[in-house]
């Protein structure tokens, strides 16, 4: 028997679906207009910038950006062609690939960051209380954990 959403769950779901459908394209639009980046490009560069020596394992970067290795590999290839990142084998294990933010990539990120952060603040955090921000982090974290625990739904077919 199907367990249907309650009226409150449906209201919350429709609002969350609206966020999922609208936020990504809005962030992409701002970043493409101002910096010739997609939001995912920016996220990859930003997560590399926060790592020691601006370097991460591909698998770690995939986990940090909530991306599949396949999607990440495609985007890293594109960023590598632009000279913004470099890939190399890990000296400790041939099975591990490292990716490093280049100086040129750092400069692209540095220029893109103020506009992106202003957009995120305006769309997501403006007028939220610290309690709202904590609740958003808790709820979003819960959802991501549930998705991760469920695994790739396509592999179940």
UniProtKB/TrEMBL annotation:
A Pfam family matched in the record: MarR
Molecular function via GO: DNA-binding transcription factor activity
InterPro entries registered for this protein in UniProt: HTH_MarR-typ, MarR/SlyA-like, WH-like_DNA-bd_sf, WH_DNA-bd_sf
Top-level taxon in the UniProt lineage: Bacteria
Any one Gene Ontology BP term: response to stress
Positions of the HTH marR-type domain: 1-145
SMART domains linked to this entry: HTH_MARR (SM00347)
Protein name per UniProt: MarR family transcriptional regulator
Source organism (scientific name): Nocardioides mesophilus
